[in-house]
Design goal:
This protein is an alpha+beta fold. The chain has one domain: TATA-Binding Protein, CATH 3.30.310.70. It contains six helices and five strands. A five-stranded antiparallel beta sheet has the order 1-5-4-3-2. Strand 4 and strand 5 form a beta hairpin. Helix 4 crosses helix 6. The N and C termini lie far apart (about 40 Å).
């Protein structure tokens, strides 16, 4: 099977998975100033990450990396840094359509999800809103793809709610 056909099949599987997501997922509002969506997690940092990784895998999305920002800071001698970990994942068949519309969109793909702990101990997940990304890069020709990406990230974020 060719790589192109595998990409098409992966995208079709992703679409089918997202279409099966319950319609009860409440959309989170992005900040109008920076396009960041923040969702409170019902779990610890480690459990939040485990749930996101499991959900991403179940959807057939490629997981690229986890960057332990707080661990890097601690290793560099920064004191008092709270847990902060960046997860990077995406579906090349979907995400690269943004780059074909505007190469600068590669700054926002693959998807990045930040899991962090606030001073009060609560755990949150933050990600870039795809409507904001479209506006940021002036992409008007990929509406269906941006809607799909929005549905996917919302369903991933739903994995960390009660």
């Amino acid at each position: 099977m060719s790589a192109h056909l595998r990409s098409i099949l992966a995208a079709a599987a992703l679409i089918a998975t997202v279409l099966l997501v319950p319609q009860s997922i409440a959309p989170a509002a992005a900040s109008p100033l920076n396009g960041v969506v923040t969702v409170k997690s019902a779990y610890s940092v480690d459990e939040t990450i485990a749930r996101i990784k499991a959900d991403v895998a179940a959807k057939g999305i490629m997981f690229f990396d986890l960057i332990d920002q707080s661990g890097l800071g601690t290793a560099a001698g920064v004191e008092g840094i709270r847990p902060s970990k960046l997860l990077i994942f995406g579906n090349p068949a979907l995400g690269t359509t943004f780059i074909t519309a505007n190469p600068e969109a590669g700054l926002d793909w693959p998807v990045r999800v930040l899991v962090f702990q606030k001073a009060d101990g609560s755990v949150h997940v933050a990600y870039n809103d795809f409507d904001y990304i479209a506006r940021r890069h002036g992409i008007v020709s990929r509406g269906p793809q941006f809607r799909m990406a929005t549905m996917v990230i919302r369903s991933v974020a739903d994995a960390i709610r009660d």
